[in-house]
Structures are given as structure tokens and as C-alpha cells.
Amino acid sequence: xxxxxxxxxxxxxxxxxxxxxxxxxxxxxxxxxxxxxxxxxxxxxxxxxxxxxxxxxxxxxxxxxxxxxxxxxxxxxxxxxxxxxxxxxxxxxxxxxxxxxxxxxxxxxxxxxxxxxxxxxxxxxxxxxxxxxxxxxxxxxxxxxxxxxxxxxxxxxxxxxxxxxxxxxxxxxxxxxxxxxxxxxxxxxxxxxxxxxxxxxxxxxxxxxxxxxxxxxxxxxxxxxxxxxxxxxxxxxxxxxxxxxxxxxxxxxxxxxxxxxxxxxxxxxx
Length: 270
What we know:
The chain has 270 residues and is α+β, with helices and mostly antiparallel strands. It contains 8 helices and 10 strands. Helix 4 (148-171) packs across helix 7, helix 6 (203-215) runs antiparallel to helix 7 and helix 7 crosses helix 8. InterPro entries: Glyco_trans_2-like, Nucleotide-diphossugar_trans.
């Protein structure tokens, strides 16, 4: 069994996060929220991490049983040349695992000091500075326990950040080079996202829904599967397209105007 330290970085929530975290022996820190990338990199720079390996988990994620077993049995037997490892992402929606989705492997484990998060507003991946990246094949789950109203409100706020990310990939509004050292699957996903950006607005979200729900057999996951693919695969991405359309309609492709419009209308300073 690996001895682990748990660091919780909270963005000044008003619930019982602090009490719950501390009751389980977690180290508790607070930092003002900007986005996931900024928050995670702040944790790497400010928390007194003294372990060899770091595991990133968001608030609605947890390790599956086989993920715990893989880490306990294999992690510290890896050669020093290995800097990071991927885990398999499982999606759980309304208590049901979405089994008919493309398999996604994500770098979530890395040696401390060898990686950090990309500076992106959405779809950020862990960027490894050097060394090998391997697949451990253990799993972690994304399982949000809140209701549909909470979920849709969250994704409405996410849609602004996703629109910023798409506009940044198209117009470099953040000034990022996007020349990052990603694992093979993340790099492939990023190339597919660029193709998605070049596809027609609104049509692309509908085709993405059809791909997931029909051609990848998402309909086999029952009513929960329909709601998952409809909301996350079509509704959410149509909402993102609506915000991209709104911004482009008002600003064209002028970077300074886009930045100013986003700050004025969405309160986000880029």
C-alpha cells in the first residue's frame, strides 16, 4: 500500500468542504478560482508536495478499484525513465456508466517536477517536460452527483470557457503557441479538435451527437445514455457554437475586439 498525502485546493467554497477534507486528514489550501489549469499549477507551486509521484483528481472524480490496485502494485516499480502514466477515464451520468463511448486515456499520474497543466481555459491536458509516458490501464471515474439543473448551469459556464478555447486555437487570442508535449492520445484529440473548429457551426454539434449516439451505440446506455449524449454531446456544444457565433458576429476575427468583448460581456479578462 502506497503512503499518500491528499492536498485539497479549494476556491473559497461556502459549504463544508474544509471540515470534510480536514476530517479525513487532507491538507487544505484555498486559492481564488480562474480556471482548472491555473488552479492545478498553483497547487503544484504552492503546496508542500514531497512525494515522488502526483495524482490529479478533480472534485467530481475518484479512482476506481482497479485504479487503486494498479497504483499500489505497479507505480513504484517503474523505471526512472518513466515520467508519467495514463489512466482510463470512465464517464458516469445519473448513476450509470456510459459504456459506449470511445476509450479515453489521460495523463493523471506524473513524477513531481516533470509536468504541469497546459495554460488553457478548457480541455487542458497535463504537459510532460521529458521522459516516457506509459499506460497503466487502471481507471478513474468522472461521476458528478448533483442534479440536472446544477449540471446544466455548470455547463452553461463551461460553454464560455470552451468558446474561448476554440477561438484561441483559431486566432491565438491568448498568445499560446500550443506546441506542447502531450501523450499520444491527447495529441491526436487536439488534431481532431482543430478539424472540428474548421467545420460549420451548429452542424458540427449535431453530427457529433449522431456519431456518439448512433454510430458508437450510445443508445444502448438507456435513458441516461440519451440524456448524456443529448446534453453533453449536442446541447452543450451547440451552446458553445452560439457563443462563438455571437462573438464573431460582433468582433469578426479581430483579436483585441474579441478579448474586449469577452471581458465586457462575460467578465473574463484574458
